[in-house]
Amino acid sequence: MTTAAPRGFGVPWPELNDGILYKDVVPSSDHETTLIQFYSSKYGNSAPVQGWLQRIQNGQVPLLQKNRTSVGYLSSLVTCHNVGFAGLEVVYHRLPWKEPGAPHFLGILYEDDNMIALNKPSGLQVLPGGLFQQRTVLSQLQWRDSKQSTLLSSQEPQPVPVHRLGRGTSGILLCAKTKIAKSRLSIYFADGTSLVGGKRNTTKEPSSVRKISKIYRALVNGLVDEDEVIITEPIGVIKYPGVAKGLYVASPSGKPALSKVKVLERNVQGNCSLVQVEIQSGRPHQIRIHLSFIGHPLLGDPLYVSGGKPGCFDSQSVDEGFAQDGGYCRPQHAVPGDCGYFLHAHQLLLSHPVTDEVIKITAPLPSILQSQGEA
């Protein structure tokens, strides 16, 4: 059954988000730690030491509480020991800010009582992170759910994405609306990756075992010689300035990954190829990494170049300067969330998490990713 409907939802973004409150309880082992030391060590990826000093001096860490009683404002050099209590609660208020521009409308490709498949536009982040804390798919799902909820509504959790698409990637994003759907869909995605990793003892082919398969469209640099290519290069993590948890790259010591590439069309004049990619594992940025690994990075990709590595990787360190809100300045080199490439989650084939019915979902192709016969 193929389901696609020209309908959707989305609320325009407010000019400023709501900011964020971070609450922590100072452990007794940190009783001699100053406030600046506490935050700069626990949240070192959020801001440099001088940035945290600015935040504290601005009154963005106004409360120290115990038993809901305010102790008051603290200097950045005051220690928890000086205050005289272990187990104090500290609250950091990240002030509201204007997030970078992002689309807000989400098309609905399929929906029932258990799940919803969205057509995510390029430029919209799926989950909160970095500068995007409100302008995300998750926020739009929560706002839609709050409008539809009533006092008689069930105790089921709010709809949530069960996998991710890069901010610059468009197309099908699958979200669960019930606990059982979330659990089973998460297992489907995890099973595909574990099969590639050889963790399952099975004599069946992976394609006959998997409960879900994903097919993407992409436009890549250069003319791919072979009509079909299977890429099995492992994907690992390296340290990279401006990316706190490290950058995913092609690495012989990384985790197993498998992508099947089929050339749909070659544009000799434009020196690019239109390809279809089926991924049988779900490593972060897998398609971008694998295509660049074989010498054909996505057209317009600001980060990955031939070899499956970043184009601007060197020994430069993170800029210790800080922005207006105290956080790190935006890196001058490319980071994973940057857009500009052409990658679209086109088709999804899965067994329904409750009924086990086979469902095929298709997201309409952007014009630039259509072959001449499809245009």
From TrEMBL:
Gene Ontology molecular functions: pseudouridine synthase activity
Domain Pseudouridine synthase RsuA/RluA-like positions: 114-292
A Pfam family annotated for this UniProt entry: PseudoU_synth_2
InterPro entries: PsdUridine_synth_cat_dom_sf, PsdUridine_synth_RluA-like_CS, PsdUridine_synth_RsuA/RluA, RluA_PseudoU_synthase
Catalysed conversion reaction: a uridine in RNA = a pseudouridine in RNA
PANTHER family noted in UniProt: MITOCHONDRIAL RNA PSEUDOURIDINE SYNTHASE, RNA PSEUDOURIDINE SYNTHASE 5
Name of this chain's protein: Pseudouridine synthase RsuA/RluA-like domain-containing protein
